[in-house]
Inverse folding.
């Protein structure tokens, strides 16, 4: 189906575009040449008066889901040239008093939407089939934007392309929908004082309508609503009390280290891949059914409605002469209707079998099921099919094929129990037990852990300079590298409680396969794999370079010098900030048009003035780098390449970036 493009102010009926528009996925996307641009998505449910009814009608990254399942923010995913933020909207669950669903985004830290490219909103049906799109071409100084809205007309829902910007940011947008901004918070935003709970808009309260009560009555007390803070380095704040587990475990009551805690999901007895697959599937699906937030988090992006979930394993389904047994089945009931997905699981790095997945796609189509979900250690890439399957276009019923990696499952569990919270302590404990199981060395659920068959010959070809520039195996290595970086982002984001995303410095719409072919040619020429990671809500961009010729992994970040400060004062301040950083950190001063003096932190601590540029050159910033030996093998063992990259990023972030505090950091030159 071709996406229907509409212009600003136009509207279209979703029912007329699809028979399956009872639930939709709304996507907001943008790109940035620098890779540093970003925005926060928010959703407001408004009544016939154009106002939110209560705090529960406002959704953002700290309040991402409605209790009734009508709205869920699915979070950011990287695209070939930027980010895409997706929102699941179950239109059948929207309360009757809600007339419009307003979809907006806001920026922070002085950023403007004019700094972003390719601003776009897309609405897809439950299966993920895009229905209608709207692009914004006139963004300028605005710091908040209403992209579009879904609204009722009788029994049907329609989409309107709005494209309305606000120079007053989230505060101005919120005010328009009956929300009074806390004046103290506004003043904090204007003065830039970060000494309290964070810069910018931190709390808003409901504004009473002028005619809500007789003049003789005392006004009802305002009801607080939490909204995203502009400073994102602090822990998240939520509008509802939820349970999270402490990061530091309680002291053990064991007599010695040989005593092992009892676990709900033990793994030491697993001896075969089949046992691992059966156990992993059963453990995961049972926790999904028992912890609603977790089950919803993993299935909403696949078009599942919010509702009662039940999960099953080893189900026998007819298929010709021989019944087939998918590893699992997920069923969700909503308003008497069933949504069903078949699950095919692989562990321990075993690949998915196309013929097996094809059979499940055929079974799902015949039985009217909605989806097939594959789950393995591998990480999905844009433009690369996990398995090749054929779809019978003659069938009216469409089946969607989706993929999950074990790394993503662990990431979502960690985000809930460490940062966002779940409904009660028992659910938090269940998720912790699941996480312990996934992280056990015998579970086989450790995520992407093998650079593939092409890794050894490509690395050897680079070392002895015999690799041809058009060797197809280099593309395989680039794809494996991209999977590794995405997994590193998932792990880092789970630790921090904020999304970490790969940065792609290419224009939206560019062919991902062509981009990987270009990266493969570069790998053959200079022997380097490069990537950039950005922590959501900050300007910190970490550059990662794996030099296959030297066997080193370099992580670096650029720190700009404050404007108007004295060079020596700036240098001394940086050294003080890095008091707890590793002594082998390389620090290089940057000047206009080139590089200045450099040295290790160990040498510079007693003599910070050694970093001052010679000849009176203007100091523009610093480049901070750590260099680590690269693993020799292609896997995730102690000597493996994957583990060496993961540890290099973790050491650099924890040992360097966290000490920079309010200092803005941007990507260092990769090399």
């Amino acid at each position: 189906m071709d996406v229907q493009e509409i212009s600003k102010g136009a509207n279209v009926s979703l029912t007329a575009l699809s028979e399956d528009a009872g639930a939709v996925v709304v996507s907001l996307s943008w790109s940035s040449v620098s890779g540093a641009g970003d925005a926060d998505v928010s959703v407001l449910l408004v009544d016939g008066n154009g106002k939110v009814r209560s705090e529960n009608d406002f959704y953002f990254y700290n309040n991402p889901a409605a209790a009734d399942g009508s709205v869920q923010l699915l979070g950011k995913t990287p695209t070939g040239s930027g980010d895409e933020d997706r929102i699941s909207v179950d239109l059948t669950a929207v309360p009757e008093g809600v007339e419009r669903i307003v979809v907006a985004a806001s920026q922070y830290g002085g950023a403007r939407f004019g700094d972003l490219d390719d601003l776009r909103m897309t609405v897809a049906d439950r299966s993920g089939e895009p229905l209608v799109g709207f692009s914004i071409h006139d963004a300028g100084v605005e710091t908040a934007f209403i992209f579009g809205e879904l609204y009722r007309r009788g029994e049907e829902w329609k989409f309107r392309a709005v494209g309305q910007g606000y120079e007053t940011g989230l505060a101005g947008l919120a005010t328009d929908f009956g929300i009074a901004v806390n004046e103290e918070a506004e003043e904090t935003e204007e003065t830039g004082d970060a000494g309290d709970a964070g810069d910018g808009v931190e709390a808003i309260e409901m504004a009473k309508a002028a005619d809500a009560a007789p003049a003789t009555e005392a006004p009802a007390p305002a009801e607080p609503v939490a909204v995203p803070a502009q400073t994102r380095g602090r822990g998240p704040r939520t509008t509802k009390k939820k349970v999270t587990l402490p990061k530091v475990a309680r002291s053990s009551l064991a007599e010695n280290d040989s005593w092992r805690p009892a676990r709900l999901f033990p793994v030491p007895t697993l001896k075969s891949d089949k046992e691992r697959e059966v156990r992993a599937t059963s453990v995961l699906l049972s926790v999904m059914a028992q912890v609603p937030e977790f089950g919803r988090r993993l299935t909403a992006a696949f078009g599942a409605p919010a509702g009662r979930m039940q999960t099953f394993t080893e189900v026998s389904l007819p298929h010709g002469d021989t019944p087939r047994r998918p590893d699992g089945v997920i069923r969700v009931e909503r308003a008497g209707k069933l949504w069903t997905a078949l699950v095919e699981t692989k562990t321990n790095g075993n690949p998915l079998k196309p013929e097996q997945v094809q059979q499940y796609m055929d079974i799902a189509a015949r039985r009217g099921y909605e989806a097939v979900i594959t789950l393995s250690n591998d990480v999905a890439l844009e433009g690369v099919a996990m398995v090749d399957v054929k779809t019978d276009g003659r069938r009216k019923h469409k089946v969607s094929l989706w993929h999950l990696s074990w790394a993503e499952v662990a990431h979502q569990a960690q985000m809930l129990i460490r940062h966002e919270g779940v409904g009660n302590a028992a659910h938090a404990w269940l998720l912790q037990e699941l996480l312990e199981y996934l992280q056990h060395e015998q579970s086989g659920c450790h995520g992407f852990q093998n650079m593939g068959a092409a890794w050894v010959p490509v690395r050897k070809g680079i070392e002895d300079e015999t690799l041809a520039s058009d060797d197809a195996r280099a593309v395989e290595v680039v794809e494996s590298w991209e999977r590794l970086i995405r997994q590193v982002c998932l792990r880092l984001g789970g630790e921090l409680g904020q999304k970490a995303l790969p940065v792609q410095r290419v224009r939206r719409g560019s062919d991902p396969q062509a981009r990987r072919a270009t990266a493969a040619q570069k790998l053959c020429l200079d022997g380097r794999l490069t990537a950039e990671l950005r922590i959501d809500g900050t300007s910190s961009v970490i550059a990662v370079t794996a030099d296959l010729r030297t066997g080193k992994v370099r992580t670096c970040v650029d720190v700009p010098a404050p404007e108007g400060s004295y060079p020596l004062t700036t240098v001394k301040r940086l050294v003080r900030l890095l008091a707890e950083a590793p002594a082998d950190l390389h620090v290089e001063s940057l000047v206009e048009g080139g590089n200045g003096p450099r040295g290790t932190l160990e040498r510079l601590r007693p003599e910070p003035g050694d970093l001052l540029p010679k000849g009176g050159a203007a100091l523009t910033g610093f480049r901070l780098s750590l260099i680590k030996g690269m693993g020799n093998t292609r896997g995730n063992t102690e000597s493996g390449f994957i583990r060496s990259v993961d540890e290099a990023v973790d050491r650099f972030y924890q040992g360097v970036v966290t000490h920079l505090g309010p200092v803005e950091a941007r990507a260092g030159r990769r090399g």
Summary: Residues 561 and 621 are 4 Å apart (CA to CA). Residues 183-240, 663-671 have pLDDT under 50 and may be disordered. The first helix runs from residue 14 to 17. The chain has 14 helices and 28 strands.
